[in-house]
Specification:
This protein has about 180 residues and is mainly alpha-helical. The chain is built from seven helices and no strands.
Length: about 180
């Protein structure tokens, strides 16, 4: 029974990561689709045949992030559960995952604003293909979206590694006794 319970909790961590990534992706893409719909209609394959920012944000928010949550959830489940140290459950990881998502959003905002400014100054231009298909007066917002998305993925990757490290350290502190976990 203990093995089953441990598997179920590991699965809960995996699903938490997948759903957190999807929720973040949908919210992020709802914003960026309204900043520059061409980022999705020109810069992405034509999976969703619509110009609706809402539908594009929903569709790409799910399609482009569920796998990121999976790729975080597998190692995080292992770091939180495997071995002799006291295991962490999904509930123990909620706050840390929330902090990671907030940090990703903040970095995406900063990167988007910086990208917009750099594009307005002429330092950045859309990649070949997009620069011809996106109207020139929309290049700066296209770059803003691109920078926000790159920042989100980079912050998520680095933050995910940090989250795994945090889980291992947290478990070791719990194993060391009550004074070490404070």
């Amino acid at each position: 029974m203990e093995c089953y319970t441990s598997f179920v909790e590991a699965l809960r961590i995996l699903l938490l990561c997948i759903f957190a990534a999807i929720a973040y992706g949908v919210v992020h893409d709802q914003v960026t689709a309204r900043v520059c719909v061409e980022y999705f209609t020109v810069g992405h394959p034509p999976v969703f045949h619509t110009q609706s920012p809402t539908l594009l944000g929903l569709g790409w928010g799910i399609l482009a992030t569920w796998w990121v949550g999976f790729l975080l959830g597998v190692p995080l489940s292992l770091c939180a559960r495997a071995g002799a140290a006291p295991p962490l459950g999904a509930r123990d990881l909620l706050k840390a995952i929330g902090i990671l998502l907030l940090a990703m959003a903040a970095l995406a905002l900063v990167a988007g604003v910086a990208g917009y400014g750099a594009a307005k100054a002429g330092w950045l231009v859309p990649p070949r293909g997009a620069s011809e298909r996106v109207p020139e007066h929309r290049h700066a917002v296209y770059i803003a979206d691109l920078c926000a998305h790159v920042a989100s993925y980079a912050a998520g990757f680095i933050g995910g590694l940090g989250l795994c490290t945090w889980a291992v350290i947290r478990r070791r502190r719990i194993a060391s006794g009550p004074t070490a976990s404070k």
